[in-house]
Amino acid sequence: PTMTSLLALVDGLLRHWPAAVRPAPVAPSMGPDQLIAKSGTELHVFKAAQVKWVQGQGDYLKIHSAAGNALVRETMGSFLGRVPPGRFLRVHKSAIVNLAYVRRLESIHSGDYRLELTDGTLLRVSRTHREHLRRALGSGGERIVAPANASPQRP
Hints:
The chain is of the alpha+beta class. Helices cover 20% and strands 38% of the residues.
C-alpha cells in the first residue's frame, strides 16, 4: 500500500468515529527531522535540514528545498509549528529561512536588511523580524555585514 492509500483509509475510518472520541487534526509529520507536505494529490517528504527557505504565496507556501520545490496549502504559523525549534525563523511576512543556509545579513539603506542564502538567493528581512534574526545569528558574527557604500551610522 502507498502512503496516499493509507492516509485515505485512515481518513475514511475517522469520519465514522463519534466526535467525542475523534482525535484532533494534526499536520502530517514523520519525525523530528522529516516533514510531509501535501501538494494537490501528491505527498512530498522533506528532511527539515534540506529545506532552505519557505515563501508565502497567498494561501500557499512554496517550500524551497535542496531536493526540489513544492507548493502546499498551509500557513506560515502552521509550518513553523511543525519544524524543529531553533532551526527556522520568520524573517518577513512572506518568508521563513533555515538558519543553516544563511550566508550573510547585510543592512540596506531603508533600515531593512537583505539576507543572502548559501545558494545566492537574496531575501528581504523586515524591521519587524530583524532583531530576532540578529540574535539567532549572533551579534557581531562574520555573517552580519554593513553595506559597502554606507557611511557609519550614529547610535
